[in-house]
Amino acid sequence: MTPQTIAYREALRQGLREALIRDDRVFLMGEDVGRYGGTYAVSHGLLEEFGESRIRDTPLSESTFTGAGIGAALNGMRPIVEIMTVNFSLLALDQIINNAATLRHMSGGQLSVPLVIRMTTGGGRQLAAQHSHSLEGWYAHIPGLRIVAPATHEDARGMLLAALEDPDPVLIFEHALLLGAEGTVEGEPHPMELDHAAIRREGGQVSLITYGGMLHKSLAAAEQLAAEGIDTEVLDLRTLRPLDDAAIMASVAKTHRLVVVDEGWRSGSLSAEIITRINEQAFFELDAPPVRVCSQEVPVPYAKHLEDAAIPQVEDIVAAVHRLMGGSGSGGAS
Amino acid sequence: MTPQTIAYREALRQGLREALIRDDRVFLMGEDVGRYGGTYAVSHGLLEEFGESRIRDTPLSESTFTGAGIGAALNGMRPIVEIMTVNFSLLALDQIINNAATLRHMSGGQLSVPLVIRMTTGGGRQLAAQHSHSLEGWYAHIPGLRIVAPATHEDARGMLLAALEDPDPVLIFEHALLLGAEGTVEGEPHPMELDHAAIRREGGQVSLITYGGMLHKSLAAAEQLAAEGIDTEVLDLRTLRPLDDAAIMASVAKTHRLVVVDEGWRSGSLSAEIITRINEQAFFELDAPPVRVCSQEVPVPYAKHLEDAAIPQVEDIVAAVHRLMGGSGSGGAS
Amino acid sequence: MNASPPREGPEASPAIGAAGLDDPARARALLWQMIRIRRFEEKCAELYSAGKIRGFLHLYIGEEAIAAGAMPALRDTDNVLATYREHGHALARGVPAGAIMAEMYGKQEGCSRGHGGSMHLFDASRRFVGGSAIVGGSLPLAVGFALADRLAGRDNVTVCFFGDGAVAEGEFHESLNLATLWQLPVLFLCENNRYAMGTALERHQSQVDLAAKAAAYRLPSESVDGMDVVAVSRATEAAIDQVRGGQGPMFLEYRTYRFRAHSMFDPEHYRDKAEVEQWKQRCPVETFARDAVACGLLEASVRDEIEREVAEEIDAAVAFAEAGTWEPVEHLCRDVYAREARP
Amino acid sequence: MNASPPREGPEASPAIGAAGLDDPARARALLWQMIRIRRFEEKCAELYSAGKIRGFLHLYIGEEAIAAGAMPALRDTDNVLATYREHGHALARGVPAGAIMAEMYGKQEGCSRGHGGSMHLFDASRRFVGGSAIVGGSLPLAVGFALADRLAGRDNVTVCFFGDGAVAEGEFHESLNLATLWQLPVLFLCENNRYAMGTALERHQSQVDLAAKAAAYRLPSESVDGMDVVAVSRATEAAIDQVRGGQGPMFLEYRTYRFRAHSMFDPEHYRDKAEVEQWKQRCPVETFARDAVACGLLEASVRDEIEREVAEEIDAAVAFAEAGTWEPVEHLCRDVYAREARP
Ligand SMILES: Cc1ncc(C[n+]2csc(CCOP(=O)(O)OP(=O)(O)O)c2C)c(N)n1
Ligand SMILES: Cc1ncc(C[n+]2csc(CCOP(=O)(O)OP(=O)(O)O)c2C)c(N)n1
Ligand SMILES: [Mg+2]
Ligand SMILES: [Mg+2]
């Protein structure tokens, strides 16, 4: 089979379609997933193909339709809940943390919540502070949740299928800026495992550790750096909880220098967790203090030049690598 | 004036009382703060003294009474919203993040939200998974919020007064296990500033960086370590956002070894942020990889022996220091 | 079915009572279940004082007619969701008393392996998703349980117990709307004991007639005397039949009262002793026992028999809990995920 | 005041219309405001296509009678909260068109310094806390604004505009309960345009009569023809008087329709063109202009006059926005906190 070139949104839709075909227990529920065709047109056409009982438009009530997904999962179904964007998921956090993440352990292992929650995440489209959060790294703090961030088209299509096979709640964060991007997938839709990070570019001098929307900026930065003769490895975490420590440490053991690139606000970001784990597990591999490139600590503003300045850009990544390779040793954060 | 010995809960009450006396714009609002006397008896007697219009019992509706606090603050009042415990604050997160933290910047600096939100936090009372969260470090990820954690009786009494003078939203986390603990306060209630960490015990060989409920366990550990001849400094962060980097770096520059003690779940905890900042600002001061003592990554269980094992204990802190001083160099996390 | 006007005091509604029953075996079973719950909880209070039970403990004493009257109307395949005040529901649903008691001791023989305690009783085999300690948090779950049954074509009913306090939470609103919109087989069961902790109904609801409030979602709703086990039983049976028949969700308000404090920490500043005493006159156990004997449905001796049976069962439950074992600390992080996972 | 039965189609209610007015100056002002909003937004759509405005843009076209009719009833000291579909409200409240346009350009001369864009228009000096992009998120704020006025002894009213979709959110429920319980001076103004994005009213509300739904909280509620600027104006004035009088909160439903897509990205799969066309027959601008002339309240020439004035104002607004400047990037993190703070 020859590879297909499709938009990320189309890869997501192929995954959803395959999931609905494979397993009768799967259904999709959320605001405007049906009649409207999905806010970002991801689920367009699925209502016509699978009908109202499996493609369910909900009222505006994030807490309750998320909780209903948990209940349906407890009662034998394999629901896919779409929360339109991560920004609105704050309304459903009680259900996600106090129920989805907790019920298995709190019940002594009796209950299982095989639920998938999908949401778009990230900034970059001038939607301002209430519509530009990147909270996937923040969600990764919660035991009981599995957090994934498909950055490639294969992952966009296949991580959903793997997530549906997982007996625990999986949150899938789809970066809004990727939706229209073209990429390739091969063969029929198939599950893409959730356990391992993936090296997207091999390199020997410095590691860029990243995920989701920032993968592509990191790859672009690596290209530029290659032109300057800096041989950069790019590691795509894929799953943010649990982290693939082995892959992180292996990359660090190879390059001894790293930059974490993460769209979350700097303080308390996932990047801090990664750097701390490296301190714990590979401290003496480090040739220089690790550096992170994160979002500025500001509610993301509307104006394009301000938004661009708030969110990590390719130049910021390149500059961070320069700082790191310059070896000043006091690499400040972006 | 001679110092008074009072319970932490009484120190909190003195602060509340003083706030209500000082400023007519101050009122207290939350579930059962009035008739019931406060779930933890903190506000007991205030209804009788200040009346119903200033001590307001609310229905169970965390999102709305928190949002109403934001609205009242925008409209000239100085509300104190009590969310009974951090566990229920998840229901109010949208208001806290998308409104309280965001409105000043998003309005171009026009709006101000001088709101104080108080809540109890932490485990240790066998209340199980849904009632034992320690999420203050997680809240510290959010720009626009000020996060404080009074660990001493003076701070319990006085940080509220300083918080009310702050033009921005301040979240005060009061550790449930401290409520009954006795301690001293001096003189009349007065504001305790929010900007600086405090050294609670001077030492030269290792720094314990901590806050809130863990301060007392850290001090107890330092006592034990002193008996063994290990000279331990204990730094109380007091404010978790913004962090007092200068105080942290100064302590590290003095001792060159540190353990962060934090009741949050390990991954993505505040401890990771602190260790990462030290990497960024004082990497070459480190004589050994920093170590953290955090909660195990599990919803906190009910049974006492399991709960004790889930939450950092004095022995865990002592053991971490031993590991660090042993200098194995691969200090794993507790 | 429509909303009836609110009753302000503890007076009984035009009585159904024991007189409405004609089956002695059923009368005995109802009385037995109420006494069993009462004595079990009195034992819990005792064990709490003795330090054997810890954490929060919320007693159901005074409200037993609800769990005892409602639960027999359910099938094994139906689903039950409840709150942190759920000992009575667990017992009535058939969760063994020993497993409940062991849970409160924190032993691994407990119905939640000691992870949950009093507020989190679970028994998947009995479809009892009992314990939720976030007020209102189980309503959305109930909607989801019902949705799953509907999608799978099973004619099960999901019942969800919650308090008057939960009615103020947004999830109540969202859940009633969604269940009604989708016509799901869920029965919302509000145990209106007139207080949310220390906040009286009229201080937390602008509309104190909760059945009328529910009716605004266009689902059938009704109020029942929750101190009368026969009235509870009848109303719940009828509602379950209707919901099982595919007529969409329903709402029942049980008007009741808790005789004890909210939890073991509550000093009860907020209500008069006299009010409590007045309601105690309507104790569901005593009124039903008295009426059942008076109308010849039960022999006077049955009461003692039941007390003996129950005492034995509770002694055995305590012994079971005492003999239980502590889960090894090394197992602490098991069951966070089904697949073994690094964090 | 009580709930009236829902109207299913776009037919007018027993008309008030221009005939209900006798003041030509007022008629002119109403027409002017509606046309101003209409033309302003048409310009926005044009500028969006030209790439001058970015992000989300939600047009109010079709609903102008509401902002135009309601806002004059307010005092300067009253508070106005709205949603992301708030250009009309901002204009009617007196926020200068130039400041709004500059905001949409992202210029620092914008009413939110370019930080907010179309969805977040603010003007503290006019007590306009316009833009909230979280559906339902401003209802609790409105309750708090009203509480502050009450506590401070000021007789201001707070009005809060929101859509039919917001009625499904938990915060609607909690806010109506709290405002009614505490009898706060807040007026809830629901712009029911029959769709929440692509989800029709009857597919998101089990009770489609929203005034009846609100009445369940025991606050006075009423439905108004939102396509009739005079009806809007009358009902809103009466409601504001009543709320200001200290009679507690009120709820008004304006029945309206949006003529355009939900946002610039909406392909409108979910509704028939015929439905839209039918509603356009009731265009608030055209019907009012026609009636006002027909009944002799306005000269036919007034329409052209207004169009000229408005075109001038909008040209000036665009020029102001074009001439606006970009906030220096170095100021990015200012105004996160009032006190300069390290993170
Ligand atoms: C969301 C949330 N807020 C607050 C609490 C604290 N709390 C526990 S029980 C309770 C009162 C609940 O009252 P009600 O629903 O009437 O049930 P009852 O206790 O009377 O059975 C409160 C406020 C909680 N557990 N969850
Ligand atoms: C909490 C939340 N959920 C979802 C959205 C996405 N969204 C934006 S507008 C909208 C529809 C709102 O409909 P309605 O309240 O009727 O207002 P209208 O747009 O019709 O004026 C939705 C679902 C949001 N902004 N906030
Ligand atoms: Mg109650
Ligand atoms: Mg609408």
TrEMBL record, chains A, B:
<dbReference type="Pfam" id="PF02780">
    <property type="entry name" value="Transketolase_C"/>
</dbReference>
<comment type="function">
    <text>The branched-chain alpha-keto dehydrogenase complex catalyzes the overall conversion of alpha-keto acids to acyl-CoA and CO(2). It contains multiple copies of three enzymatic components: branched-chain alpha-keto acid decarboxylase (E1), lipoamide acyltransferase (E2) and lipoamide dehydrogenase (E3).</text>
</comment>
<protein>
    <recommendedName>
        <fullName>2-oxoisovalerate dehydrogenase subunit beta</fullName>
    </recommendedName>
</protein>
<keyword id="KW-0560">Oxidoreductase</keyword>
<dbReference type="InterPro" id="IPR033248">
    <property type="entry name" value="Transketolase_C"/>
</dbReference>
<dbReference type="InterPro" id="IPR005475">
    <property type="entry name" value="Transketolase-like_Pyr-bd"/>
</dbReference>
<feature type="domain" description="Transketolase-like pyrimidine-binding">
    <location>
        <begin position="6"/>
        <end position="181"/>
    </location>
</feature>
<dbReference type="GO" id="GO:0016491">
    <property type="term" value="F:oxidoreductase activity"/>
</dbReference>
<dbReference type="InterPro" id="IPR009014">
    <property type="entry name" value="Transketo_C/PFOR_II"/>
</dbReference>
<dbReference type="InterPro" id="IPR029061">
    <property type="entry name" value="THDP-binding"/>
</dbReference>
<dbReference type="Pfam" id="PF02779">
    <property type="entry name" value="Transket_pyr"/>
</dbReference>
<keyword id="KW-0786">Thiamine pyrophosphate</keyword>
From TrEMBL, chains C, D:
<dbReference type="InterPro" id="IPR050642">
    <property type="entry name" value="PDH_E1_Alpha_Subunit"/>
</dbReference>
<dbReference type="Pfam" id="PF00676">
    <property type="entry name" value="E1_dh"/>
</dbReference>
<comment type="subunit">
    <text>Heterodimer of an alpha and a beta chain.</text>
</comment>
<keyword id="KW-0670">Pyruvate</keyword>
<keyword id="KW-0560">Oxidoreductase</keyword>
<dbReference type="InterPro" id="IPR029061">
    <property type="entry name" value="THDP-binding"/>
</dbReference>
<dbReference type="GO" id="GO:0004739">
    <property type="term" value="F:pyruvate dehydrogenase (acetyl-transferring) activity"/>
</dbReference>
<dbReference type="GO" id="GO:0006086">
    <property type="term" value="P:pyruvate decarboxylation to acetyl-CoA"/>
</dbReference>
<keyword id="KW-0786">Thiamine pyrophosphate</keyword>
<protein>
    <recommendedName>
        <fullName>Pyruvate dehydrogenase E1 component subunit alpha</fullName>
        <ecNumber>1.2.4.1</ecNumber>
    </recommendedName>
</protein>
<dbReference type="InterPro" id="IPR001017">
    <property type="entry name" value="DH_E1"/>
</dbReference>
<comment type="function">
    <text>The pyruvate dehydrogenase complex catalyzes the overall conversion of pyruvate to acetyl-CoA and CO(2).</text>
</comment>
<dbReference type="InterPro" id="IPR017597">
    <property type="entry name" value="Pyrv_DH_E1_asu_subgrp-y"/>
</dbReference>
<feature type="domain" description="Dehydrogenase E1 component">
    <location>
        <begin position="33"/>
        <end position="323"/>
    </location>
</feature>
